[in-house]
Amino acid sequence: MTEINIESTKEGFKVYELGIHLLPTLSEADVQVEFSKIKSNIEKLEGEIISESQPRMFKLSYEIPKTIKAQKKWYETAYFGWVKFELDASKLALFDKFVKELENTLRYLIVKTVRENTLVAKEIIATQDDVLKEIDVNEVISTTDEVEDIDVLDEETVLETEEK
User: Fold this and answer.
1) C-alpha torsion sign, points 93, 96, 98, 52
2) Tally of domains in the chain
3) What one-character-per-residue DSSP string does the chain give?
4) Residue 123 is assigned to a structural domain of this protein
5) pLDDT tens track, the chain, 164 positions
6) Could you tell me the CA-to-CA distances from 12 to 29, 31, 97, 111, 157 in Å, in that order?
7) What integer pLDDT is reported at residue 126 of this predicted model?
8) Residue 69 has what pLDDT?
9) Which of 26, 52, 65, 125 is a Cys-bridge partner for 30, taking CB atoms 3.0 to 4.6 Å apart?
10) Is residue 141 part of a domain?
């Protein structure tokens, strides 16, 4: 069994990951500036950046609201990026406050994680569509034949049961 080292290499430091959605109204250049501010703040707090993924535009699964200048707006897309970093645990609240106060943040999440790379190689990931394409239709039919018959109630029996 492999042991995962959760502890940092420095005393009092922990490994965290920030996932952040930035407003889709930003230009590509502004997105890079915002992301650079975040990384600079980590370094200013004497943290160390371990890995990162530059923000890219994504369609969100659902609309997310944000109130800007007393007006609530809903967003269907956002720039999503992440950064894994090591930071003194006592400075995490300062970093959280900094990210929260960024004007162009739609939402964010900071989690404690491990230093090791936790990404899965793309070759290993199979989507549901990939799995469905590889199933032989004849196999499915023969498998369903093996299932025991299920008692099906006729409409009269259901109506009699409902009346009681």
Assistant:
1) positive
2) 1
3) -PPP--S-SSTTEEEEEEEEEE-TTS-HHHHHHHHHHHHHHHHHTT-EEEEEEEEEEEEEEEEEEEEETTEEEEEEEEEEEEEEEEEEGGGHHHHHHHHHH-TTEEEEEEEE--SS--PPPTTT---HHHHHHHS-HHHHHHHHHHSPPPP---HHHHHHHHH-
4) no
5) 444 444 556 778 999 999 999 999 999 999 999 999 999 999 999 999 999 999 999 999 999 999 888 899 999 999 999 999 999 999 999 999 999 999 999 999 999 988 887 665 555 555 555 554 544 444 444 444 444 444 555 555 555 555 55
6) 35, 32, 20, 16, 69
7) 55
8) 86
9) 26
10) no
Check if the beta carbon of residue 64 is closer than 8 Å to that of residue 78. Answer: yes
Q: So what's the pLDDT on residue 2? A: 44
| Close Cβ partners of 80 (under 8 Å, ≥ 6 residues apart) | 19, 20, 21, 22, 55, 56, 58
Q: Which amino acid is at 3?
A: E
Q: By the 8 A CB rule, do 14 and 33 touch?
A: no
Contact criterion met (CB below 8 Å) for 71 and 38: no
With respect to residue 143, please indicate whether it lies within any of the assigned structural domains.
no
